[in-house]
Amino acid sequence: MRSISSHRLSATCSWFALLLLLIANNQLRAQEMLTVEQAIEMVLKNNYDIQIATNDAEIARRNNTVGNAGMLPRINGTLSDNFTLNNLNQKFSNGNEINTNNVTGNNLSAGVALNWTLFDGLKMFATKGRLKRLEQIGELALKDEIQTVVANTMTTYYDVVRAQQQLMAIDEAIRILEERVKLAEARYQVGTAGKSDWLQAKVDLNEQKSNRLSQRKVIEQRKADLNNLLARNAEVEFMVVDTIPLLQSESMVADVESKNLQMLIAAKNVEAARFARKEAFAQFLPTLIGNVGYNYSRANNSAGFFLVNQTNGLNTGFSLNVPLFNGLNSMRQHKVAAIQLLSSQFNLEKVRFQVRASQYKATKDYMLAMQQLKLEEENILLAIEHSRIALERFRLAQSTAIELREAQVSFVNAQTRLVNARYAAKLADTELLRLRGELVK
Asked: Quick count: other Cβ atoms within 10 Å of Cβ 212?
């Protein structure tokens, strides 16, 4: 009877284990494999900052028209129809007199008038130039926002990869520590080593397991940050690649000033400020407006001297406005525009120094990170070999637990430094691409 129960219990446990395995496989399948290219594609479609910058660029494009600059004529049509009811009392020079009450009347008038500014001190051309620069600034600002968002996406994505690789290093350390615990326990059982080695091995193993839990928390936080950039729920699960690729291009240290989007925007702002100053100067010059129109008028009265009065025809002419004095406002606005131009030039120089400093730091970071990465790639091979030899010596009772622990700690630290060095190099080459405006083609 006991054997039958034991057999059923064993079968139940087997089925339960199989069920857990199937559930785990389904969960892994449910998690999508998200590549950095897919993340960039999603952020370009969904990111709100990019959508806002797109709308701003579209507004600037729609504002850049000859009509908005004042180059086109204005045509207005008018129509009015008035009805009257009056008491009429008229006396004429020949002695006739009209006294009539409740006289009805109707006055109908219609017309089309065209007004065209022929000369306004060239202000309309300056306005058109400024609007064109504002459109170009909108396009550059959109590109810059895209570059920034993509750089943040790549940085966050590879931060998830880095955290995942650090978790893999912890898992490897746990595997080695579990082997160490088994060996220390075996040596303790046969009496060739003290219990303290076994206890220390257990303590070190539990420490790494605790580190694993903390690292899992870090990964979930980094994934939530990435989901936020992708404009989707923070709890969406996904998997990432297990490598951090590097460009390692010599062009990374090339000059960036001619391509940097912030520099181009600042330069366009200087051009727009120059046109704004020309607009302000145009207020000192006369304005010539030409006009042409067609009018129709008809008046009907039931009594009076005129029973019907109708006129229609064309009219044309011009008006010349010469500014003489307007409270010195034109002079004030011209001086303000000149100061704004000077400020935009100062801003261009400030941006130039900032870009140069950013390029210098990113280039140095990239070069140093590549040197460190090369060193850590060599060092990890040494740490793996050292850890393997230390474990084998401990298995053969040729070394102490302290020596094995030092080798294992060295191995974990080497893996962590390698992951961090590769991530630092990726940050630097991403920043250099962003500075050159080449992160997104």
From this structure: 16
Which CATH number does the domain housing residue 57 bear? Answer: 1.20.1600.10
Stated pTM of the model: 0.79
Q: Which helix (H) or strand (E) holds 389?
A: helix 329-395
Phi, psi of 361 (to 5 degrees): -65, -45
Task: Mark 97-116 as b/e (b = at least 16 C-beta within 10 Å).
Answer: eeeeeeeebeeebebeeeee
Token reading at 46: 């969904």
Nearest residue to 233 (alpha-carbon basis) of 243, 241, 225: 225
Domain that holds residue 298: 76-118+288-322
pLDDT digits (tens, 9 = 90+) for 85-116: 877 777 777 777 778 888 788 888 999 999 99
Long-range contacts of 360-364 (CB under 8 A, 24+ apart): 362/428, 362/431, 362/432, 362/435, 363/252, 363/253, 363/428, 363/432
* Tokens 């004095």 sit on residue: 325
Last residue of a domain, one of 303, 322, 341: 322
Which tens digit of pLDDT belongs to each residue from 124-172? Answer: 999 999 999 999 999 999 999 999 999 999 999 999 999 999 998 888 8
At 310, list the tokens: 């109708």
Per-residue pLDDT tens over the stretch 184-195: 777 777 776 667
**How far is residue 270 from each of residues 59, 126, 135, measured CA to CA in Å?**
20, 14, 14
Amino acid in position 315: N
Beta bridge partners of 75: 114
Which tokens belong to 1?
């009877």
Supply 401's token pair.
């637990």
Q: Which residue has the tokens 């449910």?
A: 30
Average pLDDT over residues 338-354: 96
CA dihedral of residues 12, 16, 17, 18 (deg, nearest 10):
100
Q: What's the pLDDT score for residue 393?
A: 79
Block residue for tokens 């900052």? 49
CA-to-CA separations, 121 to 124, 239, 271, 322, in angstroms, rounded: 8, 64, 19, 11
Q: Cα separation of 341 and 249, whole Å? A: 39
Q: How many CB atoms lie within 10 A of CB 222?
A: 20
CA distance 152 to 158: 10
| CB-CB neighbours of 9 under 10 Å | 10
Q: How far apart are CA 249 and CA 99, in angstroms?
A: 102
Same domain, 137 and 245: yes
- Tell me, yes or no, whether 180 and 301 share the same domain: no
How far from the centroid of its chain's Cα atoms is residue 232's Cα?
16
**What three-state secondary structure class fits 335?**
helix
Residue 257 CA to residue 366 CA, distance in Å, equals 18
